[in-house]
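W.,

You were right to be curious about this one. When I first looked at the sequence I had no strong expectations either way, so I just let the prediction run and decided to look at it fresh. Below is the sequence, 148 residues in total, followed by the output.
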Amino acid sequence: GWSSALEELHERIAHRFARSEARERARRYLRGLLQRVERKNGWQLAEAIGEADPQGVQRLLNSARWDADLVRDDLREYVVEHLGDEESGVLIVDETSFPKKGDKSVGVASQYAGTLGNTANAQVGVFLASFWCEIGMGGCRAYPAAPA
């Protein structure tokens, strides 16, 4: 399941973090990203991973010693190794935009916003999703999102 895959991924990237505190916080941060958290902002992620405030997560992302490019490369290798057989499924990459009124959020700019169909003040996010198929009589199944 996700837990063992997450541990395997963390083992692959752990050596990229200079300090044990950052390695452990990275593990918890990854778990937090996969949890059902209403908004994945600093406060709610911190609460989801058992921290009193977002300072530790902010320190991990902003000032801890690690190379984001090398972590990305490790992640890419992990995906390539686990993608391609019928049990692994496929990855779906999609982008979406989030209209914004101000300019304080990261990445906000006047840019094409696909959800609006024109140029607007917005953030654009690229998302990666996975889809697994059940091979055989049942065919593939898509599970709709739970009603809000």
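Here's what jumped out at me. Residues 37 and 44 are 7 Å apart (CA to CA). And, maybe more interesting for your project: Helices lie at 2-13, 20-34, 42-48, 55-62, 68-82.

Coffee later to discuss?

I.
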